[in-house]
Specification:
Blueprint: E1 4-8, H1 13-24, E2 28-33, H2 38-51, E3 54-59, H3 65-79, E4 84-87, H4 102-123, E5 132-136, H5 149-169, E6 175-179, H6 187-195, H7 198-207, H8 212-224, E7 229-230, H9 234-245, H10 247-265
Parallel strand pairs: 1-2, 1-4, 2-3, 4-5, 5-6, 6-7
């Protein structure tokens, strides 16, 4: 049975991967984003043709609360109440605190955390019992990383927001999921690798990356099963488990790696 799904950030990366999969299932999609390239449109059209789905694009800047409300209202007017809504839009900055400008920190918080709030506040009043809202956080919202003062803070906030929404909406029959993927090979990660902090980037190499197809398949499988916390990738799930139940071990082992990498990339720094 076809569903109406609203997804932000559906023009690239994880959002695009999820959108194509939903279209191949025959769902009707309302995609909110700043823009969609012709290449991405062709991908969406091909997925829709393969599965019999339909999609519509609505321009929305998630930092603009009235604009998000208007875009969601337009989508619902065309497609009806959403059975699934996914907030996938986000940005990343990978810099040490000393290299992070206040305005850059504020922008990451505004897009990732503020955008999640604006999206949730726009869609939830239209969702009925049995529907599901999913906010995409990150493993950075579980463990963070060196150089993630902005990104880690924003993603911890998204996890906190989703946790609160569970208390408010689960009693009404509206389900909440929070998705915390590890690094996934997307344009967002490519941009991060171009100018990210070298200590952080080396740490991320140790943890490894997840392919886009694997990540999207596992995320969608978690949503299908009605999972609250969805962490794609076995290594990521193990990392989250250890961080939760063995925090001292996590902190100690991570600090050893950080010190080793700081000696490599910052040879003049005095460590204690």
């Amino acid at each position: 049975m076809s569903r109406h799904c609203i997804i932000s950030g559906g023009g690239s990366g994880l959002g695009l991967g999820l959108a194509c999969r939903l279209l191949r299932r025959g769902d009707t999609l309302s995609i909110l984003d700043l823009a969609i390239t012709e290449e991405r449109r062709q991908q969406l059209d091909a997925a829709a043709q393969a599965g019999g789905g339909r999609w519509h694009f609505y321009i929305a800047d998630l930092t603009d609360a009235p604009g998000v409300v208007a875009a969601v209202a337009e989508a619902i007017s065309a497609g009806g109440a959403p059975q699934l809504a996914i907030n996938s839009a986000g940005i990343a900055i990978n810099r040490k605190l000393s290299d992070t400008r206040p305005e850059d920190f504020a922008k990451v918080i505004q897009v990732n955390l503020g955008g999640s709030f604006h999206f949730a506040r726009a869609v939830l009043p239209h969702m009925q019992a049995g529907a599901r809202l999913a906010l995409i956080s990150s493993m950075a919202g579980v463990t963070s990383n060196y150089g993630y003062s902005a990104y880690g803070s924003s993603k911890f906030g998204v996890l906190g927001l989703a946790t609160t929404l569970r208390y408010e909406y689960e009693p009404l029959g509206i389900h909440i999921s929070c998705i915390c993927p590890p690094e996934v090979k997307t344009p967002l990660v490519d941009a991060e690798r171009a100018d990210g902090d070298p200590v952080s980037l080396d740490l991320k190499l140790i943890a490894g990356s997840l392919g886009l197809d694997v990540a999207c398949d596992e995320m969608l499988a978690g949503l299908d099963r009605g999972r609250w916390l969805i962490i794609p990738g076995r290594s990521a799930r193990m990392t989250a488990f250890i961080a939760r139940y063995f925090p001292r071990l996590t902190h100690g082992s991570t600090m050893l790696l950080v010190r080793r990498l700081m000696r490599k990339h910052q040879p003049g720094v005095q460590l204690h």
